[in-house]
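Propose amino acids for all 71 sites.
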């Protein structure tokens, strides 16, 4: 996406931005793009959904490991 382009971010671009931000590897160029072309509400919703899915996956893995360990 060009910096002069006024198109809103696609869902894919927002997902990659949320994932990169969650792992702390977001570049400054992409962060600036997110702030100029993205809507905060979209990032908040995606961030909450990502966090919920992440917690559920970790919870499921722990439950599986405990089950396999016989605890």
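Proposal:
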């Amino acid at each position: 996406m060009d910096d002069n382009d006024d198109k809103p971010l696609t869902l894919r671009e927002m997902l990659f931005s949320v994932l990169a931000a969650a792992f702390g590897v977001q570049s400054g160029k992409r962060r600036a793009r997110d702030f100029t072309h993205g809507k905060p509400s979209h990032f908040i919703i995606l961030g909450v959904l990502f966090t919920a899915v992440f917690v559920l996956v970790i919870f499921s893995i722990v439950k599986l490991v405990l089950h396999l360990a016989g605890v």
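The two ends are 51 Å apart (CA to CA). The helical segments are 11-23, 28-37, 40-69.
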